[in-house]
Design brief:
The chain is built from 14 helices and 17 strands. A seven-stranded mixed β-sheet has the order 4-10-9-8-7-5-6, with helices on both faces. The protein has a four-stranded antiparallel β-sheet with strand order 13-14-17-16. Strand 7, helix 7 and strand 8 form a beta-alpha-beta unit. Helix 4 packs parallel to helix 5. Bound molecules: ligand C6P. Ligand C6P binds next to helix 4.
Amino acid sequence: MTQIATPQLDLARIRADFPILHQQVNGHPLAYLDSTASSQKPALVIDALTDYYRRYNANVHRGVYQLSEQATEAMEQARHKIARFINARSPREIIFTRNTTESINLVANAWGRANLKPGDRILLSEMEHHSNLVPWQIIAQATGAELDFIPVDGDGRLALDDLNTLLTEQTRLVAVTHMSNVLGTINPIAAIAQAAKAVGALVLVDGAQSVPHFTVDVQALGIDFLAFSGHKMCGPTGIGVLWGRKSILQAMPPFLGGGSMISRVELRQSTWHELPHKFEAGTPAIGEAIGLGYAVDYLSQIGMDAIHQAEQQLTAYALERLDAIDGLQTYGPAVAERGGVISFNLDGVHAHDVAAVLDQHGVAVRAGHHCCQPLMNILGAPATTRASFYLYTTPEEVDQLVVALEKCKAIFS
Ligand code: C6P
């Protein structure tokens, strides 16, 4: 069996930062294996939120009084930190949204409605989350554009051999996930972006599962848009990010209209504020944006490369242990091409029943279609049970999962 090498991360120290992890569930220590759905939060982030609401809660960009200036300064600092984290050229390219879903809908509506016409094509993949599929279906219907799909191969990787055939002069946008939330597959975004650029298409990356887990450098990848969620990267819920190339964002019309996004308003027409405000209508999630800035500090201090390495080691260990269970099938590619997400099915037991038994043993996992129904059809499995890992996950929690799965097998056999 794989021996976990000297851990890259000081797990005991990291776990001490997450108050929620230290509890019993159904008489067992909690093994939280659902970070793909939402990560836990370190005390630093929880304290940053509390501190904002206790000491300087006020609306931003409006007041000339001290609390408002303090809140504005803290929120703009968070924007700077996030820009540095993904190597954006300017903090003006960081748009605060509610989550990945809203970020993608922003591009689909603002860029899509202004730029797509009948005959244009949008290239997606078969492994997309509904958030990077449904908005494009809606926009395609509204504009007459058509959707194409990069297929998924038998190993759960994108079949890129035909990429140059799928990309045509009519392809205006390629929108793909950086890492699958079902299979864990990490896609070769730089190569896809290079091929897309050769036909003049823009590239949007769904970074919901990549930005929290490994270094994402928007300039090195050569992409145009990146969407991600704060709550999956140790940050609060209700805050997400759209990064876009400045020249493209500047040329786009606004998504939502209202306060804060305008320069001048008359009764029949208005002009727009400069970036990023043009895309941030209404009062933003101020405390949550500040909290996300602290989450970025926390992850940066530990190091994204160390987090990725540790997750890959743990995934190798978990795959080895799960694949040794008779009657259990895991999905997805070899460990070198994946992150810390493992979907599986136990012969003859519904994925939801497996998850319910695991919960009885303190193990929190997700079961279902994971908002990827087209991918599940391709896998031939209406549902899977899914265990997912983050920087605070231990090999002992993987062992707890395996013991609980053996119990589950015994119950249903
Ligand atoms: N996946 C999961 O359990 P939001 O809900 O907007 O923060 O993230 C949407 C989203 C988009 N793309 C990918 C690849 C995702 O994994 C998710 C969220 C969660 O798998 C909730 S369905």
